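Human: Here is a favour to ask of a fellow structure person. Comparing notes only helps if you start from a blank page. I am asking you to supply a protein in sequence and structure-token form. Write it directly below this note and I will take it from there.

Assistant:
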Amino acid sequence: MKTAPVLGLRENAGQFALLMLVNAFVGAMVGLERSILPAIAEQDFGLVARTAMLSFIVAFGISKALTNYVAGRLSDRYGRKLVLVAGWAVAAPVPFLLMWAPDWNWVLAANMLLGVSQGLTWSTTVIMKIDLVGHRQRGLAMGLNEFAGYFAVAMSALATGWVAARYGLRPEPFYLGIGYVVIGSVLSVFAVRETLHFVHHETHSVAGPVEPLNQRELFWKVSVGDRNLSSVSQAGLVNNLNDGMAWGLFPLVYAAAGASIAEIGMLAALYPAVWGLGQIVTGALSDVWGRKRLIVGGMWVQAAGIAVTGHAGELMGFAIGAILLGAGTAMVYPTLLAAIGDVARPDWRASAVGIYRLWRDLGYAVGAVLAGLLADFYGLGSAVYVIAGVTVLSGTLAAWRMSETRIAATNAG
């Protein structure tokens, strides 16, 4: 007779820590591009129009968003581990395409593959951690997961900026990516264990009637129908709209103010570093304070950080803006995932996470297109201020529509 799995962070600490490590290498793959790809677009490929330059973020965002949706469904059907390993296989060509790309289309192809890989790997590590911990420490679990991923984004951005400043933009910075893929793949194949049986156990223990939903009904519920789930989805989209703008435009804003490649790398790392470290605290706080106040407040703090960056003209101001943006994102990012886990039943939770992450990561594409068009027609400063305004509106919408989900999860448990 098999022993029933035990839910909880402490009870599954070893596997949870391993998944954090795997997600660090997942995040590090994104960090490869964070500080240097806009410079590569200008210097190696002669791109001047901001819309064309930010097309790599559009390719990344759309492919990642669509893959998030597929990853949720596949992991419910075939298990989490298989999807995780497949994601690393897709990532394998990315460093080589970036370091040897003869034209910009190769960079776009690399970012499409990177988006697919991120959708498969990051989605799966999120879902597996939710599987392991149950409802009691869901916010802390998401904070730890996102800390591992985004602190690694920061460290990788810092490392590639340092390497690029000393050895050039290509190919040396992308050698790091080969190591990330090898280590992440080995850990995923040989050390990570399947968690789908935790879901089956939790599903049988949840009180209340089963709520069978087909994919159309579930998509409508998460996107529009449920006030909490749809509020989370729109906030996630605007959050990553901000991130797409910060990824693509902020290095250009810094460069226009006279920052060097090394300084740009440092600033590009500061925002995700604050974001990553802050999530250890904010994820746990959401288990105590609830989700809504952190989501609403976090969107408004993000807006303040973006506005400060747009107003600043020197490194100290840029650093303050990056810190505020990182702090606001830390308040929002793990809390949104925890709120999805609060509301969704275990039997359709992975699919709900996939739909949420579809909308959230479409924000990369929306942000890159919107920021690029605004920058081309009205200038970098105007683009930054418009995005700040959109972020204020998103927080206000969540304040109006959303109720507290942590209470519902506690009662259900």
Summary: DSSP finds 19 helices and no strands in the chain. Residues 104-133 form the longest helix (30 residues). The CA atoms of residues 29 and 177 lie 6 Å apart. The mean pLDDT is 86.
